[in-house]
Amino acid sequence: MILGIESSCDDTSASVFENDFMLSNCIAGQEIHRQYGGVVPELASRAHQKNIVPVTEAALGKAGIKKEQLSAIAYTRGPGLIGSLLVGSSFAKGLALALNIPLLEVNHMQAHVMAHFIRSDASQKQPAFPFLCLTVSGGHTQIVLVSDYLKMEVLGETLDDAAGEAFDKAAKIMGLPYPGGPLVDKLAKEGNPLSFVFPHPKAPGLNFSFSGLKTSFLYFVNNELKKDNDFIQKNKANLSASIQKTIIDILIAKLRQASRQTGIKEIALAGGVSANSGLRHRLLQEGLQAGWNVYIPELQFCTDNAAMIALTGYYKMKKGQFSTQEVSSTARYPLNNR
Fold it and tell me: Measuring CA to CA, how many Å separate 266 from each of 116, 249, 337?
């Protein structure tokens, strides 16, 4: 029985697994950040302190077990907001010490990839090794070569901003409330993706760059507002559809390149932005054309959750990869180190 704890950003989550089967997965969000237009680190860590005990109790209760039945505790060591990570790691360490059970420290980005292997009552298709995983979130954009459950290599990543950040920045420019990414996705369904054309920033190899795209979108909108004060209001759907198409085009082009270079046709999607309906649909379309086997996680496992942490902990436990009380949380935690 493994308890997973996730607290890398603004979601407090706890999950209980019996081997690789999910018994519970509970998440507490933080509404307070909406009024600030983004996550405020200090407020996030304080909210984690309030939420972590009741969320863990809820996960244990839903799983139908007592804390004394736990075999180990897996927690997110990084990457993420250091204050938020410290709340989760301190709680996990304290509980493990009190119960005299081992600790398992988990890389958050590795866990996103591992979400494809979560078994529950509604089990999903699982990719075969080796496979390529496009991992896209608010803080990361990576193409990962996955050779085994715990053997992963980053083939390409963003050199500046992440794709999720580009979505949120575009939403902010259009005056949409936080979190803006899902609203861009919703508006895009009503717009014409060919209405406006934005540049594809160049990045070497399989790497990405989204900083220039954000700047280009900002300048374009500002220039149009000089001509028409109501430009955004009149074109929200078309702007959303066009910027979403551009971001997805960039992601798919690099993924196509990675598949050609490696010869791998097992293609997976992971991370918070994998919940974007446009990206999910486009990847399935691309898979049909390119002959890929495409794997997309359930929506509940796209965003931050402790189920992926607990499952990764299970595979680390099988390999005897335990942690110690001395291991520190870290805001930066390269995936290739795992």
Answer: 12, 19, 23
